[in-house]
Amino acid sequence: MMMKRKLVSLKKVVLVGCLIVAGGSFAFRDDLFQVSKNLEIFTSVFKELNINYVDEINSSKFMKTGIDAMLDGLDPYTEFVPESDIEDYRMKYVSTQYGGVGATIFNRDGRVFVSEPYQGFPAAKADVRAGDEIISINGISLKGKTNDQVSLLLKGPKGTPIKLVLGRVGEAKPVEKNLVREEIVQVNVPYYGMLENNIGYIKLDKFLENSAQEVKDALVELRKSNPTGIVLDLRNNGGGILQESVKIVNLFVPKDVKVVMQKGRNAEKTVTYKTFADPIEPNLPLVVLVNNRSASASEIVAGSLQDLDRAVIIGQRSYGKGLVQQTFNLPYNSLVKLTVAKYYTPSGRCIQALDYTHRTAEGNVIKVADSLITEYKTKDGRSVYDGSGIFPDMFVKPVEYSPITKTLAAKSFIFDYATKYRNSKPTITDPKKFSLSDTEYADFVNYLSDKDYNYSTRTEKLLNDLKVEAEKDKKLNDIKAEYDALKSKVSYSKKKDLTQFKDEIKQVLESEIVSRYYFQKGRTEYSFKNDDEIRGAYKVIADKSMLASILKGEGSYKTIGKPGQDFTASAGK
Q1: For the chain, which terminus, N or C, has the lower number of CB atoms within 10 Å?
Q2: Under 8 Å CB-to-CB from 435, ≥6 apart: which residues?
Q3: What is the CATH number of the domain that holds 238?
Q4: Is the separation of the CB atoms in 383 and 374 below 8 Å?
């Protein structure tokens, strides 16, 4: 008990000591007494719980719960990272390197399967395939283990051996694979190359270490082909390091131009970032692709290039994350990631969409009110708006899959058929040319004949709502004959969905199959022929007058109205 009291007292001294050390920040502030008072109350509560609570308390877990609860009232990007989670944190937000076999996994009904191997790394080189079940790792059975537990078994120091026992569709006996772990580098630019009409294309997945250098290297290589324009694809890019976004903008914008400014409550966190070098490609037509999962650093790049009238933005409204985080080291190898500032694009707008400071009485976060949205001007006078992400210059309606396609994907029938297809067919044609024949699609339909892929169509949901309301009004008996007739017709129509939605089902299935032979690169190349945003880029880059009119805010493609008043500009087929 004495040891416990000493430990609690020591924690209290450390907390008060931290307050004194931070005197430069707090010494002259009016709330010094409140800070000191609340720290003392907090440590006293913690002490009394440790000494007097009826059951034994896990101090580390208890403190982590308290800290998480305290931060939960701020924003989802402010978080405490204990020592045990540091490695995973750095992998997610900072570094792109780790030791392992190079494959993603997923769990289904307590069994672990390979989702996708990375091209060029141990798993792919040993012919470990997507769809393989991992039965054991180094003799350890994976039955009942979580993804995190399996991931830890797969990772390890570079150069160490690892033995996988796999279950494979079409193989009667388990398949054994002996691999050697390598340093796995997750590139920021998974693909670049030339599209139709001699247009250069760069896909940027994230903004971690060296992302700007990877984009630069890709751009230098593409310039050798004398492209007519460049497409920078930031769709589904959740962002990362702010400074990397500044460097990427600098590849297309002259030296000493403001890219972004961050403003914080602490004056030290208010910083203006400008371009610092001569650009590689300041004049070539540039298109940036975004969608509702393009966030943070992606929005800095898209927003800055839009504000500077350097690029045409195509796609859907971006996510709307205008906050900047910084990490601070804490005792015992832990850290805290805090939101320290908001960032502002060159026109002066902050695109943060959710207002975490002014929550409702119930504690819910709301979007920035339309009445508070402000108009800003780009370099050449186009209207842009704050408070709701980056609104594209050319809006392209996002793909909305039918319920049957979503169901086939969600229940892994598309994934499983691709596994079956790959294990029965050694090779396929080039990804850009691959297409399933009608006979092969018929085989897929036959494959589904004994599968449960029941789903509700929109019409069925509406009919069910009608039934519920009719029962409430005691009118169901009056309309039962008509209701049953409609339900029967809908059921009959639903049976034809595999035919009616054949084209979109084929696209999703073909993409999955292509990835089994050509990995992520093949999936990307296959996608080009069905990509409406890419078609929009073709049109803009080919039509110089359209490009000029968009950048001047003229013509039918300009962003009209305030955010929320979306318009659709056809990208052409």
Answers
A1: C
A2: 506, 510
A3: 3.90.226.10
A4: no
- Classify residue 491 by burial, with Cβ atoms within 10 Å: 0-12, 13-18, 19+: exposed
Helix 413-424 crosses helix 502-527 at what angle (to 10 degrees)? 60
pTM for this model (two decimals): 0.85
Contacts (Cβ under 8 Å, ≥6 apart) of 113: 105, 106, 107, 131, 132, 133, 134
**At a CB cut-off of 8 Å and minimum separation 6, what does 471 contact?**
none
Q: What is the largest CA-CA distance in the chain?
A: 81
Backbone angles phi, psi at 395, to 5 degrees: -85, 130
Residue range 508-534: average pLDDT? 97
Instruction: Specify whether 524 is located in the same domain as 419.
Output: yes
> What's the domain range around 130?
97-185
- The Cα–Cα gap between 386 and 368 comes to 9
321 and 215 share a domain? Answer: yes
- pLDDT tens figures, 75-121: 999 999 888 888 777 766 666 567 899 999 999 999 999 999 999 99
Instruction: Specify whether 180 is located in the same domain as 250.
Output: no
| Nearest in space to 397 (alpha carbons), one of 319, 318, 316 | 316
Active site residues: 296, 307, 321
In one-letter notation, the amino acid at residue 521 is K
Q: What is the mean pLDDT of residues 510-518?
A: 98
Helices (H), 385-475: 403-410, 413-424, 438-447, 458-472
Q: Compute CA distances 329 → 16, 93, 271, 326, whole Å.
A: 17, 15, 21, 10
Residue 114: DSSP 8-state = E
What interhelical angle do 242-250 and 297-307 show, nearest 10?
30
Pairing of strands 175-180, 375-377: unpaired
Reference 321, options 293, 296, 356; nearest CA is 296
